Amino acid sequence: MPTVMIVDDIEGIRQIVARILEQQGYTTICVSSGHEALATLGTVGPDLILLDVMMPEMDGLDCLAALRRDPRGRQTPIIMMSALCDQHHRDRARALGADEYLVKSHFTVDDLLEQVNRCMSRN
Length: 123
Hints:
Blueprint: E1 3-7, H1 11-23, E2 27-31, H2 34-44, E3 48-52, H3 60-69, E4 78-82, H4 87-96, E5 100-103, H5 109-122
Parallel strand pairs: 1-2, 1-3, 3-4, 4-5
Helix pairs in contact: 2-3
């Protein structure tokens, strides 16, 4: 079963997203920070990463850049999830190597699953 790492500092969001993905047959690993994602990367080897943008200490864009520099994260599909919907953040995420960008207040469960499945099929 494919493994999805969910990186978000809000526990409720991690739990909801994990439940949705697990109902579709995915295995999930939940972490609460960019630092934890980087530390977990080597032991988990996720098939896909869902990464929040706004997090304390290391934001998702800095984490994305670090993941793309790491050979273990260079080819892993990454979907950014954020409350930030401005084009600047979308463009920056794409430039850093994000595969997709979902705005939390605008996507549905079907949108999430569509993006996850699309990224997984590319891998």
